[in-house]
């Protein structure tokens, strides 16, 4: 139980990759708090099954997110997983929808990480979930989404310098096609995705969560400011 003395806070933990991260950290002995926006049933079920605490708060609402993190007290491991995917012709996509995606994918990740870092003890860990599309984007319609994920690469580079003196690491995990509600393995985009991959299968949320657990653990203390891609070779 490597994490029995650790408190983890997962933003966006009710479904998909975030839910698997909650399950992995609770199984490893951590005390886990996770947030969600809309999926009340899934969040309550996950909390009951794992013993994690669920809190409903919109990650795109800066002050609410900051207040929730502050109320949680010192956090050893902060994971920012919440993300929205808006796809379509950039000439016709709704600007408010794009702004909303920027709020959740970028502003929440930045302000959440800063607030977590404020009270984090030395040796803490910050993980943000980006995307391998920051490195390879072979499809139209995803420019704004890729912009949000590429922004996280810059963020972890910069913050690694600010937090390194306190032995706090910050890294971005970059999943590729991963079978979740956002990108189902039997969805309309699956054939195109598989065509870009070296390994011809979708990844699983558990594979991404295993990497998160490793990066949060003692073996990864020298990894910071880095992007860790797990994408079956999509961006190779
Ligand atoms: N699946 C993929 O192929 C893939 C590939 C690369 C990167 N990613 C990234 O991986 C992360 C997780 O994706 P996923 O595939 O697991 O997506 P998902 O199945 O759609 O789950 C998204 C999670 O984020 C939460 N969330 C969304 N908006 C939120 C908000 N405003 N406040 C708080 N929580 C919010 C959702 O909670 P509610 O349901 O309660 O709103 C849900 O728990 C995202 O950042 C995504 O961009 C995914």
Model description:
The chain is an alpha/beta fold. The chain contains 7 helices and 7 strands, in the order E-H-E-H-E-H-E-H-E-H-E-H-H-E. A 7-stranded parallel sheet has the order 3-2-1-4-5-6-7, with helices on both faces. The protein is globular and about 45 Å long. The protein binds NADP nicotinamide-adenine-dinucleotide phosphate. Residues 12-18, 35-39, 58-60, 81-85, 104, 129, 131, 175, 177-178, 180-183 line the site of NADP nicotinamide-adenine-dinucleotide phosphate. NADP nicotinamide-adenine-dinucleotide phosphate binds next to helix 1 and strand 2.
**Bound ligands:** NADP nicotinamide-adenine-dinucleotide phosphate
Largest sheet: 7 strands, parallel
| Helix and strand sequence | EHEHEHEHEHEHHE
What is the end-to-end distance? 35 Å
User: What would you call the structural class?
Assistant: alpha/beta
- Given as residue ranges, the uncertain stretches (5+ residues, pLDDT < 50) are none
Largest beta sheet: what is the strand line-up? Answer: 3-2-1-4-5-6-7
